[in-house]
Structures are given as C-alpha cells and as structure tokens.
Specification:
Blueprint: H1 2-20
C-alpha cells in the first residue's frame, strides 16, 4: 500500500512538472 502511494505521488509530481513545463 505504501509503495503504491509513493508511486502515485511520484507520477503526480511528474505530471505536474510536465504541465508546468
């Protein structure tokens, strides 16, 4: 569960960076 949450957070951060980029 923790790993999944970490992965989800990482993916969200990546999407945010792309949107900002």
């Amino acid at each position: 569960l923790i790993e999944n949450k970490s992965l989800k957070t990482e993916l969200h951060a990546t999407r945010h960076e792309i949107d900002n980029y």
